[in-house]
């Protein structure tokens, strides 16, 4: 996946299971992402997306997703 595809997936992919099932990856609480980081992300596309979102939130880069959120909300 390209960087653009990854960022787009963060604002369109929903969590498929658990407490936050059906929540967009970009809307997952930071505490949940930290918990996943401590447990280990799944070895899958979902794990890659969760890890990417963790890094984005950790570094205060959520603003990068705002233009994509606006585009998908139309």
UniProtKB/TrEMBL annotation:
User: Native species of this protein?
Assistant: Parapedobacter defluvii
Pfam family of the protein (one): QSregVF_b
Query: This protein is called what?
Result: DUF3820 family protein
